[in-house]
Amino acid sequence: MIADIAVVGAGAAGLFAATWAGRRAHAGGSRPTILALDGAAKLGAKVLVAGGGRCNVTHHAVSSDDFAGSTPGAVRAVLARWSVADTVAFFADLGVPLKREPTGKLFPVSDDAHSVLDALLRAARAAGARLAHPWRVASVSADADGLFDIRRDTARDADTLARHPAGPDADPVLRHDRVLARRLILATGGMALPRSGSDGGGYAIASALGHSITEHVRPALVPLILADAPPASTPNAPAPPNAPAAPAPPPPGVAEALRSLSGVAALATLRLHTGSGKRTHQATGPLLCTHFGLSGPAALDISRHLTHLRHTDAGAHLRASFLPALTTQAADAMLLTARALSPLRALCVPPHALPERLVRALCALAGAPPAEPMTSLTKPARRALAAALTDLPLPVTGDRGFTHAETTAGGVPLAELHLATMASRAQSHLFVCGELCDVDGRIGGFNFQWAWASGHLAGVAAASSLAQ
Predict the structure, then answer these.
(1) How far is Cα 345 from Cα 351, in angstroms, rounded to an integer?
(2) Who contacts 317 (Cβ-Cβ below 8 Å, separation ≥6)?
(3) pTM higher than 0.70 for the full model?
(4) pLDDT tens figures, 207-256
(5) Mapping DSSP to helix (H, G, I), strand (E, B) and coil, where does residue 405 land?
(6) What is the β-pairing status of strands 98-100 and 105-108?
(7) Domain 2-218+409-466, architecture per CATH
(8) Per-domain residue ranges for the chain?
(9) CA-CA distance, 47 to 194, in Å (whole number)?
(10) Distance of alpha carbon 84 from alpha carbon 99, whole angstroms
């Protein structure tokens, strides 16, 4: 079977690319064969779980500063060609108006991710795209005639079809194990949330077609694991003369204390430091304590920077402030003032509306009995509590991996693509978009905006190139 345009991957970026390839072709008076191939029995798993099942479609203010990976200038060049206003208008035209929440995130008014996925599927089909699934791509090569030879992973698809038989309206391409395509758009996604079908297969395809992949591909927007270090059995070796002071290790029991607060959330700033103590990144937002460690926007946003830095600096570490507006000295002064004004108030009465369970845990870590009155707070305990509130070292031992990650850090460098079209510099008539690129955004709809922007460019360019 021969297709004019094959899109490998029918997630957010792939569906968008297929839609805009069809729309661009129709505007030029042509009706190309557009195939979107995906290995999943049901499309759109990542769309449906995004935003807690509501789908955080985009953010009201998106800039290159919200992304990591490839250079900000390269990311900016792509985002400039498809704006947030374009995203809002696109979904509104499909009957899915978006609403802005106080955080700046844009959700469908329906608060239902199914409305977003249904709109994407309708748009792709209306544009003439054929959605073939499960049709998992095993390999792609470029032949001497300028066609892409796409081979199917028949064994995996047979297993999927045995568990999820194709319906009577399944695309006839499911009967074929090979597709030839004049244009190819890679939108396979990365490795995050593998149960959705993102198994990293796109990296091998891109590599086979001449692209490099960043040295490291890691989970991003991923929860963090806390574990207390075992007691040292031997004294530490003396530091070399003139060596910089090592950062203070987490107090004993921090991990156990925070994990015991599972379900408790508080506004916090997480600061990432090198092993020598230099601050490199920070993230502010809700921080959620869990049975394994930390989740919530603050932890997810800082996670990719922590894992990246730890590759070259084993001493990289996080410190938390539960009073982001205060320094440790200011927090100490606040406690002094509170003692003077309310000497009989219990220590556990939350300052600045912090959850009482969190304050109790921090008091215990600081050696300040939480039920005791403020007047009993000694100077050392007061200073320790101020430090626990504003500069608490976190014993992060790892993350929960791709299974629980929302996106992937790493991929095809944007330097290998023409940014106006997402066309490959390595292989003619090849386009790359979405999470497969070395671009990952912070939490809040930014990764979807990247999918829309890059998918739009790839789809329009692929269709336009057919007419040349």
Answers:
(1) 11
(2) 247, 272, 273, 275, 393, 394, 396
(3) yes
(4) 999 999 999 999 999 999 999 866 544 444 444 445 445 555 666 699 99
(5) coil
(6) antiparallel
(7) 3-Layer(bba) Sandwich (3.50)
(8) 2-218+409-466, 223-229+246-400
(9) 14
(10) 12
